[in-house]
Amino acid sequence: MFCSKCGKENPDNATFCGECGLTFQAQPPQFQPQQFQQPQQQQFQQSSILYPTPTIAPLKKKRTGLTVFLSIIGTIVVLIVIGSLASKRDKPQSDNSGIVQSTNQQQREENVVTTLAPTALTVGNTVKLDNWEITLNSFSIENEIREEYWKYAPDEGNNYVICNLTVKNIGKKADTFLAYILTDSYAKILYEDYEFSRTNLITYDKDLSQSVINPLSCVTGVMVFSVTEDIANSGELKLNIHVGVKNAVFELK
User: What is the 3-state secondary structure (H, E, C) of the chain?
Assistant: First the structure.
């Protein structure tokens, strides 16, 4: 503090001036209010309690029926691909080039229609076409076919060419010989450039058209064709039988 009389600076706790001896009067202490501060931890806890931070939960996507269906289809496709790759991996591969070449040659031969001795086959000959063993027993030219209760006649001016055949099924299951529906097998009479399809006599029990033959069994019957009289008597007729990719021609002489 400073002396009010001489201006000398004295200690704050001095009771008199050291320079002039002036006695100092005691001054009441000045009160300074202190600002109370709340601890940060406690303030944080109160703030958290009074004002909690909102939490937004993520929205869950609903799986629709289409999503489930596409997932199932995708799983099936993956399984099919894996199975296909596994089968190819496990399939044995032949190192013998001769066997591979023979197999390719056989496939090429199966894709070509084969004609078996077109001029050598005649009455009494037997030929094998796929699962059938066929023998031409005889043929005849008739203007009608008579049974006990039925009579069959061609159109006016035509004759029947009747081919008697014995057919054996050498396959492993029952089958219909030269079926009309859903088949690439047929029988025709050939004359020069003309072709005559067979006549289906449904009620004629000797007709081979609807014969179902068991494996290793034989059936003897006829196939009937209707041709004009002059062609029937020409002596130049041929019977063409086609089964699968193989073909046989019998001369009717």
Answer: CECCCCCCECCCCCCECCCCCCECCCCCCCCCCCCCCCCHHHHHHHHHHHCCCCCCCCCCCCCCHHHHHHHHHHHHHHHHHHHHHHHHHHCCCCCCHHHHHHHHHHHHHHCCCEEEEEEEECCCCEEEECCEEEEEEEEEEECCEECCCCEECCCCCEEEEEEEEEEEECCCCCEECCCCCCCCCEEEEEECCEEEEEECCCCCCCEHHHCEECCCCEEEEEEEEEEEHHHHCCCCCEEEEEECCEEEEEECC
